Every structure is written in structure tokens, then in C-alpha cells.
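Standup notes
- DV: blocked on the single-chain target, sequence here:
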Amino acid sequence: MYNEMEDKRTEGLVSIINKLLLVIVVLVITIVAIPFILFYKSQPVKPDTPVPNAATAAEAVKTDATNYWAAPDINSITDAAQKEQVLYGQELIAHTAKYLGPNGSVQKISNGLNCQNCHLQAGTAVFGNNYGSVASLYPKFRARSGSVENVYKRVNDCFERSLNGKALSNTGKEMQAIVSYINFVGSNVEKGKKAEGSGFKELAFLDRAADPQNGMTVYTAKCQSCHQANGEGVLTADKTEYTYPALWGSNSFNDGAGLYRISNFAKYVKYNMPQGVTHLNTQLADEEAWDVAAYILSQTRPHINVPKDWPDISKKPVDHPFGPYADVFTEKQHKYGPFKPIVEEQKKREESAKQKTATIVKN
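- DV (later): unblocked, structure below
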């Protein structure tokens, strides 16, 4: 009897001890967990992040695109005669060589390139050297000629330089159609204003000179398949125009063209090439763009004699490749860089001129 009572007493003590241990464990866990619970509750509740979908992606593209100029629709023209003239102008810009090239059906006055080889999508591509600001800004003073130029002069500059050809008659059907088209596509830009996305997108200068040898590697890898190893481009089957334009040689732009300036060419390449890229989706690194521009512009091309260009040499761009200059830098440095020292010298010269003018006015 005594042994049975002892066994029961022992079992009761063990049960009590186990319960006390369980209570202690629960208390310890609670004490440890309380700071974490309090910290979590003190944090602000964030709304759920929406999952991207096709609609929101399309809206993002649309919102970005509205920041840039877009040409008006030719089909909005109600006057039949004007519409016909504008459409002909568009055709001449897109397929210049078919009408005015070496095998042109109207005249044979240019090298076989099309205007849209330099002015992409018939002059409507954002940062593709488009015509968005031509109607709004011309007539305007241009330092290259040292005079006020109208649209006709600007068009013929392209024919004589970029197309290495002859000027059109200002009163002829083709010139009138081209000017009508250019004026129409820029008709939605306020006079005196510059359209967003016109011209070229800015590209920072390198800290070194652009390197034609590096550029040859870039050209071989990313340009040669279209423009060919010798830069001659690819003609259409009927040889009336280029599928891929000549980048140097006798059928390319001459050394008086705007694209013969390396900064223009590097910007053009960076934001438009290889074919299919845009300024929002580039493929070339900045250095690749500068170097491949240097390589292409180091090749032989036609020369144009323009002794009246830049009557005020102090107004020459830093990358104008022909002297004389208002500074001491060489033609080679003006062609390939580095340009930052030239820019700094130019700023000092301009500041000095301002101070002299202010002194004269004061006295």
C-alpha cells in the first residue's frame, strides 16, 4: 500500500513539473517574439505593386512618344492639288535617285543617294535628321554661308553636297514639290520654335580622339553586312537607287556635307544605326559610334570647292575639318578630336570678346 501511494505522488510531481516547463517555454517564445511583432506593426502598409501588362507597357510608350514631334498625316490635306504636290515631294525625298540620280527619269543630276538616306523616314524620324523644324525656323541666318538662307537654298545645299550633284531650279516642279512637302510636315510646329526630337540627339565628346582603327573593327562587325566591305553600299536590282547607301567613294556624300562633320555622323550613327534601332533603344556604345564615324570619314570621297564657306572663321564648329581656324589646333584634331580642349579655348575666346565689347560700350 505504501509503495502504491509513493508511485502516485511521484507521477503527480512529474506532471506538475512538465506543465511548468511548458509554461516557461511559452513565456520565453512570447518574450522573444514581441519585439519583432511590434516592429512589423510599426511599418507603413505598402499597396500592392501592380503587375506590368501589355496595356501599361503600351501606355508608357505612348506617353514617352508624345514628348516628340510627329509629322501630320498627308491624308488630312483636303485640297487635291496641294495633296498631289506634297505626295510627289514625299516620293522625291524617299526615292530621289529614281527621278534625279545617275539613271533618273526626270534629270540626271545627283550621285544615286536618296534624301532619306540622311533624313530618315522621308524626314519624319525622331532624331533622324528630320524636317520638323525647317518650316518654323527658315529663313534663318547660317554661319556657314554668312547669310540668311531660305528653304530653297537649304535644299540645294543638300543636292550639291550630300548628293554631290547639281542644284535644282527654284521654280521647277521637283523643287516646288520638295519644298511643299517639307513645309507641310513642319506645319504643326509654331513659327520660331524648334520641334522636339528634330535634328540629332546630343552625344558627349570623348576624352580622346576618335580612332579610325577601332572604328574599322566596329564597321566590320556591325555595318559591313549592309554597306559592304568597301563602303559601296548595295544597289537595287534595277540600279536606280540604293537599298543600303554608299558611305564613301565616288557615289557618296562629298566633304562639304553636314555629315562630314564627325559629331553629326557619330550622333546619326549612335541613335539610328544599325538599321532598326531608335534613340530609346541604341546598340552602339558612345565610343563605338565616335570610332566608326572616324573610320568612315577617313575614307576617300568626292571633294567640293566651297571657298565662300565660313566667312567668319571664328564661327566654325569645333569639328569642322578644314582650316584656317581662329585657334591653334590642327586640322587633324578638328576632324577627330579630342574636342574638349578646343571647346575650352573657344569659350575663353568668346568670353574675352564679350569683355572687350563691354569695355568699349562702357567707355
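- Follow-up: The first strand starts at residue 140 and ends at 142.
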